[in-house]
Automatic annotation (TrEMBL), chain A:
This is NADH-quinone oxidoreductase subunit K. Belongs to the complex I subunit 4L family. The chain crosses the membrane at residues 6-24, 29-49, 61-84. The gene is nuoK. The keyword Cell membrane applies. It is found in: Cell membrane; Membrane. Signal peptide: none annotated. It catalyses: a quinone + NADH + 5 H(+)(in) = a quinol + NAD(+) + 4 H(+)(out). Its main location: membrane. The keyword Phosphoprotein does not apply. Its EC number is 7.1.1.-. InterPro entries: NADH_UbQ_OxRdtase_chain4L/K, NUOK/Mnh_C1-like. GO terms for biological process: ATP synthesis coupled electron transport.
Length: 100, 637
């Protein structure tokens, strides 16, 4: 059986890739995908712990996270589509009107 | 029938103000005039009705109190909007509404061509409301409301032609001077409340003899403060200088507010508070001395003024001095009697002067008048009656009242005051006939322009003149001297001034009384003869006299430089102090504090705004860094 630590390690790696993706990419859609990576790394950790602890709680949480992620994607993509219509660009470094 | 008796009297002009504000623009000049005059005329009718009812009561309980509503109630203290009608306020009320009504009618003609016709009647009605509140109030607090209200209206009406800087200045001066007096009034009122526990006349007057020892410092201070209020409102030394400047207002205003009604409020107040003043002989003495001094002082200034309205203004100050003189020697009835007759003839003089000014296309300088008797027959006739009345020629109104004041002053042992009054009477006759002769007699000195437009005034102006002339002629007959049990006016006033000092003084023997009458008539005749000689018979005499009495003439021509003195002593220091305070305290300290707070926030914000770049990436970085810091912190535990 694969030890839980491996799953957790994978989860950490994926999460880090997600964070770095959010920080360094310009394309809003890619940033979005990176956010999904982070969410799913969280899911992976949940499942791993559920198995380790013999509890269903973690798996139930995953469903919630997936629901929230789906809703968030719907809203987020709508924003990005509107942004594109308005500015003909999805690069976040070109969108900086709201500043101090 | 429980129909409103008293509160309706001030309420009518107030209602007219409201209507004028709401629908005045749709009424037109005619409608506005009808509304304003109608309200005051109706108020007069109600006043007559109320006074008739009062006269129907037995003498001992001739007071009607009507409580409109309770204004406030705090602990033991309660103030109500309550109106009081007794013989004193009855006289005031009739004078205010009656003369006020005539002046309203006159104003319709006088202000006919003024673009601010509606505003004028708005203020005038507001004034009537305030004045009636003042005289009908049943406690000091409500009286003070009216007191301030008339001050406000006076300010508004003096500055009625506000586009003229001199008018705006004069309004301001009147207001500030009145404020000084009002300050005294408030303090006096508060002291009386603190010591007497009530502001209601009857309660306060009933309790006063038990609280205050006669002649004690407390009551003296309180009454002197009240009298300070009276000097402000009634233009006495030292606060008289605003009244001559108030002539910048339209002439009907001068007649109504600055001759017949508002300026007599101080006299009314002193007469109303006579139970308090009688407890403070020193205050009464002050009132008498200030009154006498003002009477003489203002009369001398009146000798040399060339503006027809200013002569009348100084004459008003002087006559008000006579009223205070009367109150000061304890002859309150005589003071109120003179107040009434003065309202008749002085209102008439002002309205007549207004008619002259109107006829001469706004010429006010006596040196450019003359020979108007034939051109303005009605104005001339009525003015002559008023001039004779104020000069004190029997049997016109002014003779009886002035003579009564003088004989009372003599009878009460104030022979110095009496002598000053007698000299003042001669001066009064002189300057009034100087005015009359310069305006109506002698050769015409009119400019060609004025000569061309010369016209008698319209009926709406002439009729009030005639009515007032009739009142000035016969109004004094209610106070004929040497009657068994006092004259009519005295008998009417007796319930109010029962047992007041000078009233009870031993009556003079008929011989003394006749001598006094003869002396005062002689003084008046001397003044008239002097004016006649100086200004009509010997044309060069006036100039020679001016030369001979050069110093005196210069002094009175420049009003003894009192205005300049006040400017140097009070106005300039206050002005400079305020300037300093403004520049230093206000701009540096107060503004500095407020602005300093703003600058601090601005600086901090300028730093913080550097973080808000607008790039989502930066925010994400900050966020991540923040999370990392938290995680590290948590990990260290």
């Amino acid at each position: 059986m694969i030890p839980a630590s491996w799953s957790l390690l994978l989860s950490a790696v994926v999460f880090t890739i997600g964070v770095i993706g959010v920080l360094v990419r310009r394309n809003a859609i890619v940033i979005f995908m990176s956010v999904e990576l982070m969410l799913n790394s969280g899911n992976l950790a949940f499942v791993a712990f559920a198995r380790q602890l013999n509890s269903l709680d973690g798996q139930v949480f995953v469903f919630f996270v997936m629901t929230v992620a789906a809703a968030e994607v719907a809203v987020g993509l709508a924003i990005i589509v509107n942004l594109f219509r308005l500015r003909e660009s999805v690069f976040v470094d070109e969108i900086n009107l709201l500043k101090g | 029938m429980n129909f409103p008796l008293l509160w309706i009297i001030p309420a009518l002009p107030l209602a007219a103000v409201g209507l004028n504000l709401l629908i005045g623009d749709r009424l037109g000049k005619r409608g506005t005039a009808w509304l304003a005059c109608g309200a005051v005329g109706l108020a007069f009718a109600f006043a007559v009705r109320a006074v008739l009812r009062l006269a129907g009561l037995p003498e001992a309980d001739r007071t009607i109190v009507e409580n409109a509503y309770t204004w406030m109630r705090v602990g033991d203290f309660s103030a109500s909007v309550a109106f009081l009608l007794d013989p004193l306020s009855a006289v005031m009320c009739l004078v205010v509404t009656g003369v006020g009504f005539l002046i309203h009618v006159y104003s319709v003609g006088y202000m006919a061509h003024d673009p601010s016709f509606r505003r004028f009647f708005l203020y005038l009605n507001l004034f009537m409301f305030a004045m009636l509140t003042l005289v009908l109030a049943d406690n000091f607090l409500l009286m003070f409301v009216g007191w301030e209200g008339v001050g406000l209206c006076s300010y508004l009406l003096i500055g009625f032609w506000y586009e003229r800087p001199s008018a705006a200045e004069a309004g301001k001066k009147a207001f500030v001077m009145n404020r000084i007096g009002d300050f005294g009034f408030i303090l006096g009122m508060l002291l009386l409340f603190a010591w007497g526990g009530s502001l209601q006349y009857d309660r306060l007057f009933a309790i006063a003899p038990h609280v205050f020892v006669k002649g004690a410092a407390a009551i003296t201070i309180a009454t002197l403060l009240l009298f300070l209020g009276a000097t402000g409102k009634s233009a006495q030394i030292p606060l008289y200088t605003w009244l001559p400047d108030a002539m910048e207002g339209p002439t009907p205003v001068s007649a109504l507010i600055h001759a017949a009604t508002m300026v007599t409020a101080g006299v009314y107040m002193v007469a109303r508070c006579h139970p308090l003043f009688l407890l403070a002989p020193a205050s009464l003495e002050t009132v008498a001395v200030v009154g006498a001094a003002t009477a003489l002082f203002a009369a001398t200034i009146g000798l040399a003024q060339n503006d027809i309205k200013r002569v009348l203004a100084y004459s008003t100050v002087s006559q008000l001095g006579y009223m205070f003189m009367a109150c000061g020697v304890g002859a309150f009835t005589a003071g109120i009697f003179h107040l009434m007759t003065h309202a008749f003839f002085k209102a008439l003089l002002f309205l007549g002067a207004g008619s002259v000014i109107h006829a001469l296309s706004d010429e006010q300088d006596l040196r450019r008048m003359g020979g108007l008797a034939g051109k303005l027959p009605w104005t001339h006739g009525t003015m002559l009656v008023a001039t004779l009345a104020i000069a004190g020629i029997p049997p016109l109104a002014g003779f009886f009242s002035k003579d009564e004041i003088l004989s009372r002053a003599f009878a009460s042992g104030h022979s110095g005051v009496w002598l000053v009054g007698l000299v003042g009477a001669a001066l009064t006759a002189f300057y009034m006939f100087r005015l009359y002769i310069l305006a109506f007699r002698g050769p015409s000195r009119l400019s060609h322009e004025a000569e061309h437009h010369l016209h008698e005034s319209p009926p709406s102006m002439i009729i009030p003149l005639v009515v007032l002339a009739a009142l000035s002629a016969v109004g004094g007959l209610v106070g004929q001297p040497m009657q068994e049990g006092g004259h009519l006016f005295e008998r009417w006033m007796r319930p109010v001034f029962e047992g007041a000092g000078g009233e009870a003084a031993a009556p003079l023997s008929p011989r003394t009384e006749w001598t006094l009458i003869a002396l005062s008539v002689a003084a008046a005749a001397l003044g008239i003869y002097g004016a006649y000689r100086t200004y009509l018979v010997e044309p060069g005499l006036a100039a020679r006299l001016r030369e001979r009495l050069r110093a005196f003439h210069q002094a009175v021509l420049h009003k003894y430089w009192i205005d300049e003195l006040y400017d140097a002593l009070v106005v300039a220091p206050v002005y400079h102090l305020s300037q300093r305070l403004w520049r230093f305290w206000d701009e540096r300290i107060v503004d500095g504090m407020v602005n300093g707070v703003a600058y601090t926030f601005e600086g901090v914000s300028a730093l913080l705004r550097l973080f808000q770049t607008g790039f989502v990436g930066t925010y994400a970085l900050f966020f991540t860094l923040g999370v990392l810091v938290i995680l590290i912190e948590l990990g260290r535990r």
